[in-house]
Amino acid sequence: MEQVLAKVAQNMEKQLDSEIERLDALDNGDLEAIRQQRIAEMKQRAKQKQEWLANGHGEYTEIDNEKEFFTVCNKSENVVCHFYRNDTTRCRIVDMHLKILAKKHVETRFVKLDVERAPFLTGRLKIRVIPTIGLVKTNKTKDFIVGFTDLGNRDDFSTDMLEWRIAKADVIEYSGDLLIPPAEAKKQRALQIQSKKTIKGRADSDSDLDFSD
Q: How far apart are CA 11 and CA 76, in angstroms?
């Protein structure tokens, strides 16, 4: 295991060295072109963000009926919809996490809909378990998070865990590893850091050895 982590660390260092060499090789003209491109991208992103906010992004809001659900999906490319019932405790847990994620992911619209107000829609989507979170992209339902089974089957799952599960449907921007849950990824990063420290410690010890007579 230690050898594997050491190999990963070495590969990461090689990639970093290659990127540094690439940047060093750029002339002033190349750097200016990159800077202008970056500025243009930032302006476009800022404009896009204002449009998202104008469409209700950045907040976790309740919609009143099925018609409003379709309106929301027509206006926003990415939608996370919590189908809930007032008397269900687990729905309040979902509310807590989605309020946090709505502020973090302004690129996505986060809403909730009482299933009692949407009998046609819940029947059409075959929603049988409450809570269910519908994940919609470009007007198509890509996935459902049904109950807490995908969240560790526990009520005290983390916001990071729900974020990761939503990201697997490609309806939010996510920079983490989609193949493994965030808690496991965090453990792997900690092991990599420890491996680097161990390798460095050994290198320092070797350099301190004195073979002189």
A: 40
**pLDDT of amino acid 5:** 54
Question: For 109, left (φ over 0), alpha (ψ -120 to 50), or beta?
Answer: beta
Q: Beginning with the edge strand found earlier in the chain, give each strand of the sheet holding 140-146 in spatial order.
A: 60-62, 109-114, 78-84, 132-137, 140-146
Torsion angle in degrees (nearest 10) through CA of 11, 12, 18, 22: 160
pLDDT digits (tens, 9 = 90+) for 85-104: 999 999 999 999 999 999 99
Q: Which residue has the higher pLDDT, 57 or 207?
A: 57
User: pTM score, two decimals?
Assistant: 0.73
Tell me the C-alpha to C-alpha distance, in Å, between residue 139 and each of 23, 61, 94, 131, 205: 41, 19, 23, 21, 60
> Left, alpha or beta for 205 (phi > 0: left; psi -120 to 50: alpha)?
alpha
Average pLDDT in the 136-143 region? Answer: 96
CA dihedral angle for residue 22, residue 25, residue 30, residue 31, rounded to 10 degrees: 80
- Other beta carbons less than 10 A from residue 197's beta carbon: 10
